[in-house]
Specification:
3-stranded mixed beta sheet; 393 residues; single chain; 8-stranded mixed beta sheet; alpha/beta
């Protein structure tokens, strides 16, 4: 299922930057089937508390779209289930197929995942939009991305949670056709990649696939509640997150500090590029008002830590990963249909700009110390899943 690789031909960074600045006003792909939002009409993010769940993509919608992209793409989108990829565990708890799509022929593999939380839907829309562009856009920028990278796109990591519009998945007894043990046992898939974890089938399935891919980079798409920027009170539309806090208890010790540097460079680049778009207002992802997260049990944290589960990753392969948090979610009633286009668009832009920056080497030239320039509250501590809150200093 993984395309054959060939050596990339990367244009000079300065040449590509000039092309991108000249094209900055061009529109990017909107969610599938969505019209461009009228600027005067948009509440972004929405504070009206209206969310039309019926318009959110279902598992069947995703399968149909992946199959369509495989049939119609110009540049070889390959959509397949984890069963077809030969994974030992290959379906969700309730037996739904787990799907991946690949595109590109580069030697460096990139992992892009969304909707690991079922009530955070626009990761699905964003990844399908980017996949459509990667499979159809013949521009020099997209050609560069396909030459440099092989993309592994997971638009719906948690199909059971998505169908139920809940954050978690539920452990399931397929014989009885009901929750395992009779009472629902909810598992947060984004906390299930741990030495004592892997309770859910989805976790075991995608982990095994990850160990066959050995990515070099990764991005995870999420939602958060409505948020105000520290110091200004302006609405935040997108928060830039790193699951192991830069300068915190864990990240500086990985790969001699390389991931501490690279993840900050990745987000500095995204912040600079997306600041050109007036409707996107970014800050750093924080919790509890002023705490950074240092969550070692998160999926993307486990990727950076090089987790070896069940002997599937004996070499301890690891790689840097960042995440994006779009403001508004279905459970909080704050998603806002009028904001859909721009909510998805900012994620597509963020991924595209980050990937182009990685492909040209611009990201690796960014000043990681400028991470502190991205709006955030003064850090008072690190919220962990292993030692409670660790105060700064």
């Amino acid at each position: 299922m993984i395309p054959q690789h060939r050596d990339p031909a990367t244009p000079r960074s300065s040449d590509r930057r000039r092309r991108r600045l000249a094209a900055a006003a061009l529109a990017v792909a909107l969610p599938l089937g969505a019209a461009a939002p009228a600027a005067a009409d948009v509440s972004f993010p929405s504070t009206e508390g209206r969310t039309n769940i019926s318009s959110i993509l279902t598992h069947d919608d995703v399968v149909r779209e992946l199959q369509k992209l495989e049939r119609t793409s110009r540049y070889g989108v390959d959509a397949f289930t984890l069963a077809e990829a030969g994974m030992e565990v290959a379906t969700s708890e309730q037996g739904r197929d787990l799907w991946v799509a690949t595109v590109g022929s580069g030697e460096e593999h990139v992992w892009l995942q969304g909707r690991i939380h079922g009530n955070e839907p626009y990761g699905t829309d964003s990844l399908l939009s980017l996949l459509k562009d990667l499979g159809a856009n013949g521009s020099a920028e997209y050609e560069l991305l396909r030459e440099k990278f092989t993309f592994h796109v997971i638009p719906m990591y948690n199909p059971d949670g998505a169908e139920a519009n809940i954050r978690h998945t539920v452990l399931w007894d397929r014989v009885s056709g009901g929750p395992e043990g009779g009472a629902p046992q909810r598992i947060d898939l984004n906390r299930d990649w741990t030495a004592e974890g892997f309770a859910a089938d989805e976790s075991r399935a995608f982990y095994e696939y990850w160990t066959t891919v050995d990515p070099v980079w990764g991005v995870d798409i999420h939602h958060q509640g409505l948020k105000k920027e520290y110091g200004t009170g302006d609405d935040v539309t997108l928060s830039l997150g790193i699951s192991l806090a830069p300068g915190g208890p864990t990240l500086p010790g990985l790969e001699d500090g390389a991931y501490d540097r690279l993840t900050r460079q990745m987000h500095v680049h995204v912040y600079d590029e997306l600041s050109k778009y007036g409707y996107v207002n970014m800050d750093r992802y924080q919790v509890g008002g002023s705490q950074e997260i240092d969550i070692r049990g998160g999926v993307v944290s486990a990727m950076m830590l090089g987790l070896d589960h069940d002997g599937l990753n004996p070499e301890g392969h690891s790689h840097p990963v960042v995440f994006f948090e779009t403001s508004g979610n279905t459970s909080g009633g704050s998603l806002g249909q009028k904001a859909r286009g721009r909510s998805v668009q900012q994620n597509v832009l963020a991924m595209k700009e980050l990937l182009l920056g990685l492909a040209t080497g611009e990201v690796q030239q960014e000043d990681p110390e400028r991470w502190d320039e991205i709006p955030h509250a003064p850090v008072t501590g690190y919220q962990t899943d292993y030692a409670g809150v660790i105060p700064v200093g």
